[in-house]
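Hey L., structure's done. Input below.
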Amino acid sequence: MANSKDLFSSSIEKVSIGDFSEDAYLNYSMYVILDRALPSLLDGLKPVQRRIIYAMSELGLKHSSKHKKSARTVGDVLGKFHPHGDTACYEAMVIMAQSFAYNMPLIDGQGNWGTQDDPKSFAAMRYTESKLTEYSELLLQDLKNGTSDWNPNFDGTLNEPKFLPSQIPNILVNGSSGIAVGMSTDIPPHNLGEIILAVQYIIKNPKCTINELRDFIPAPDYPTGGKLLLNESDIDSIYNEGSGNIKLRAEYKASGKYIEIYTLPYQASTTKIIDQINSQLIEKKISFISSIEDQSDEKNPVKIIIKTKGTSHDDKDVMNHLYFTTDLERSYRVNLNMITTDGKPKVMNLRDILSEWALFRVKTYKRKLNYENENILDRLHILEGFLIVYKNLDKIISILRNEDNPKPKILKIGKFSENQYEAIINMRLRNIAKLEENKIKDEFNNLDLRNKEINSILKSKTKLNNIIIKDLNILSNEFSQDRKTSIVNDTEISKQIVKEVKISDEIMSVVLSANGWIKAYKDLNFSSNTISYKSGDTYLDRLDINNNKEVSFFDQKGFLYTMNVNDIPTGRGYGESLKKYFNIDDGISVTGLINSSDEIQTLLISESGYGFICENKNLKSLNKNGKSIIKNKDSKIFKPIPVNPTDHKYYILITSNHYLLVGKLSDVPVMAKGKGVKLINIPKTDDSEKVIFSGVINQEQRLEIAAKNKRSKYIEFSQLQPYIMFRSRRGKKIEQKFIHKKLKLNYNINLGKK
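Output:
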């Protein structure tokens, strides 16, 4: 008998832990991407959503039928197609029923399906009832007419559609969001009528541009309404590249000292906004609001009444402050990532989405026509047999009555095929007796005519396109709605800086920490060294500024952010993190403070040695996502340097390899944004070398070089003459006599010898 140990060892495949883990992770990743998180371009649905819609159609829950318990639907979905948790399945079902989540809900719900203020306040599935909406049937129509591919379900006992033969680009109409492994999607909803017009145009003009399509689709359209701040550069980025950001504001109307907010940004909560305003009232950050009340009801889903103190406050100033400090204005990330027709995830631009969907629609319609044609040909074949039967009716009836095995003789009469014979033999004698030649011929001729019509359509691209365009017109007339989201140009709005109403004129000292915590002090006679910080945090910068002004700062990716000095917390404690006010990425630090109200200029420099001068009037941004000013990939940004041309004549740069360059500020261009120009030449062959110090200097100043526990060394301005050269040069290595060897050096510019 063979050794049992040898038997087992020979059947075991040995794989390294690394290879096994990698393979398992990749399999899991693809499962999440393809089967859970990302929607299909074809029908705009994720697998669980598609399974819910299909299961409801199989249950007969059409829009014209009665509602049934949602638990029945969830049970069918889990038992037949989606063996996962019932809670997750039901939540996916709820979202498809919420009119404030979808422009065109796919499910008609009865009962408590959540509210705009609290979308997750829906009742349990045993209490709610549901059926499909009329719109959802646009996704299902012709499903069983050869228009879809089918896959076996999880246990192989049933088949489920790989996609639904949607008659409209649902991917854009309702949008989608999801997080996969290593990627995500955030597709905003759009107006159905606008989408249909764009599809019709691209079918007629397949080589059209994105700008042409944008004549029909100016921007997304959110189901909750609101005012979309249309920034051309952001919209260009979204529709041309498939990613970007978009801003949405609440809408209001004012009468005297009352302001009524009647729409909110998408997914914004009334309760949260009221809490945000009340918090500011408690902390005395605002003094112009007397009271705030939520009067929302079924008739008015959003109705927030704000009462101001007196009538002297401008409603625009009040709302501008609230837009900046609450969720009355929200920014949305857009990422047009989806599963394409080839089954792979891809970030797509607007033209590619519509073009690929139009091709899918044409292909689907062809499959429908081919399926119909096959059925017509099968029926014509049977009718040909019936015509032969009619001509030989007496013989065939006699054979059927007298023969035990009628098949050979019947086949001999008309040379019938097996299908024809089966159709004849399965007919009742009374039906055969009732056969009328004219009726058979009429049906035959009608079907033959339809067959020729289908073949004509299939052979003509123009005819096929015209039919699809005509069908889209019908759908547009039936389902189109007015745009819910209004559009305003953001060009001027983005230049406005939020101003507090009736702010006292007072100088404050704003302190910024290295980890991005900010605080304001009324006492200007304090030392920055006496301030307490959170563990691991240190002092970064300080700015004395009037409290009715604005202060700006950069993050190290080159994004600019602006806030009111009056909004900066005061009193005890560490202050507040800037991430409370702005959407700053984790792990990204901030640089120094800028007085954006000053009429001076600021020198902006990156570690790669590029830079430019920017006028402070351009260094303002109300966007919570910031505004990209310095475009310098993978290169950190230095602390911004205030520049006064009358006081500062030169800039100074030092690299990690101790190369020093002094250049004239007059050689540095003034720009609003961009990468800038090369101020010092760092060889591309050395990836480690970078700028470690930047500053401005005049003839009365000197360069200080300090090291820990060592006496500072100084380079007087007169000694800097060899280092003065035109921008973009390599610079000159600092003489060894000025450098503390093998020590970490700190550089500073201060007053020279008198």
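The chain has five domains: 25-187, 251-327, 367-478, 503-597, 598-754. Confidence is low (pLDDT under 50) at residues 494-504.

-- N.
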